[in-house]
Amino acid sequence: MKLTILGSGTSGGVPGVGCSCEVCQSKDRYDKRLRSSALLEEGETRLLIDCGPDFRQQIMGFDFKPIDAVLLTHYHFDHVAGIDDIRPFCVFGPVNFYADKKTVKALHDTIPYCFAGNPYPGVPLLNLQEITPHIPLQVGNITIIPFVVMHGKLPIMAFRIGKLAYITDMKTIEPEEMEYLNGVETLVVNALKKNKPHHSHQSLEDAIAFAKNVGAKHTYVIHMSHGIGRHKETSEELPEGVELAYDGLVVEV
Question: Is residue 207 within 8 Å of 193, Cβ to Cβ?
């Protein structure tokens, strides 16, 4: 199973508009971060995790073939604003989207033209389905178990796929949800800034402690702002088994 990190950045992306900090002014490609998203491939099955505003740019370098499912973690626009750009893939038929109840409702409110009874020509063909935490979802030869993490006070979806767990925008996780991380070997998890508290996101220090608690062999940090520091310098400070992800990183799971 192959996981490609399409975007490793936070909601504003890096570099930030108008920012003159050393990270945003860096010429190092590892310091340039599109909004968080990932592509998971197993045989002929392809899953997209989140579909943010950079989706068109992120998918351009890949073979043009069906996307079997899109898993949405939550309804914030940095995770769903690229849905209209799924249109080219509708030549293969409606694209299956899976999301929790709140996200399904939010999408009906924000992109109602996709769900109209008599849609205009060219509208994305979306098969939007509600998923329930802890109930396995089968897409091709991939089994996904959604579970819940807390984005501040907002419950959002995280996904367990085999020995992989993909978590973004987490601040905390309830003890009963930790059982869905038993046996995880590859952990993808968010950290917004370097050891600076935030009301709805982990810091890098939080992410490192969480990875240790999970016991994953390999942890890749995503959803990073410029507050994470320069990729090269921060990477040198990380414990063994923890790495900063970067756009285009390919992980064999």
Answer: no
Answer whether 245's CB lies under 8 Å from 220's CB. yes
Instruction: Please state, in angstroms and rounded to a whole number, the distance separating the CA atoms of residues 202 and 208.
Output: 10
Write the pLDDT tens digit of every residue in 28-78: 999 999 999 999 999 999 999 999 999 999 999 999 999 999 999 999 999
- Nearest CA-CA partner of 211 in 185, 250, 248: 185
Cα torsion for 58, 61, 63, 67, to the nearest 10°?
A: 0
**The 69-71 sheet, strands edge to edge:** 126-130, 95-99, 69-71, 45-49, 37-42, 2-7, 250-252
